[in-house]
Design brief:
By secondary structure, this protein is mainly beta. It is built from five helices and 19 strands. It has helices at 8-13, 17-20, 91-96, 103-106, 149-152, and strands at 25-26, 31-44, 64-77, 81-89, 108-116, 121-129, 157-166, 171-178, 192-199, 205-215, 221-232, 237-247, 251-264, 267-277, 288-299, 305-316, 321-322, 328-330, 332-343. Strand 12 and strand 13 form a beta hairpin.
Length: 344
Amino acid sequence: MKSYTRYVLALSILGLSALNTSAQQNISENISISGHAHTYYMYNLNTPAGNSNDQRLYDNLNNQFGFSIFQFSLAYEDATTSGVLDVNFGPAAGLVNANSYGVTSDAIQNAYVVQKVNDKFSFEIGKFGTHIGYEVIDATANANYSTSYLFNYGPFYHVGARVRYQLNDTYSLMGAIYNNWDNLQDNNNAKTFGASLGFAPSESLSGALNWIGGDEGSPDFRQLFDLVLSYQLSEVFSIGFNGIYGMESDSWYGAAGYFTYGFSDNFSSTLRAEYFDDSKNARGFGSSVTALTLSGNYTMKGGHVVIRPEIKADFAGNDIFHDDLGTATKASQTTIGLVALYRF
């Protein structure tokens, strides 16, 4: 979920007050501003040469303080029209906005307009996060700082148009046409299409069945099926699930479970257990991996600063992690770190 940054499913599974305190500021009846920044310190027990953590997005630096991103968001909303502009600065901006053709376009994470036709039907056009996946680009909306392999090897964003239709209180539909995956400009004459069936049969259970497919320049049609589920078992305990199956030259697949427990109004902890298999090298990873991530989220007084201790252990099917000599001789990697996130 790189998806639609305010995506309902992502927020519902993180629905504990330790994560959900809103820092958005209204500067007029229709306009609001918000933003965030995050920095971290990570230590890799493999002590890899070059002080770089393998297969990481935001937390890719080892044994040093790292600054990832600063985001400024401007939003407009009235009875029929809304718009979002999210601008990013920092090393991670170029990672999540790959193939953006320059520093200026790298900075634009989201820039889209939504037009409400009636109470059931709306359409949107611009650049936005993908509808695929459980996690999103916005680190403050995820319970773990280190992103999953499912996230890292799925699409981040698209340029195109989407339509949404609310069938009833339980079901909703979304259809999309995009240029492609993770590219501001189309690389061929074909388009990529997306679809989503959202469902919320009860206040505690919600989910979405998503699909994306198109000719992305390879000899084979690329498509990905994606299932997202969120279930609130009690006021303090919730679980989430993400499962994917993709096909192009070959197939790849994976699954992740998220288990969140709220210890108090300002502290919660989330365990993520995941498995990702790209042994056939369809996504360029070339291995399978099992990973466990345990994160705490402590919201400090005022609700603007979140302190997040985290430990992550990766266990791969091949020797893909680097040692202190810079050679990939390790089949596992463990990092321990502390993250500070600021929201306004």
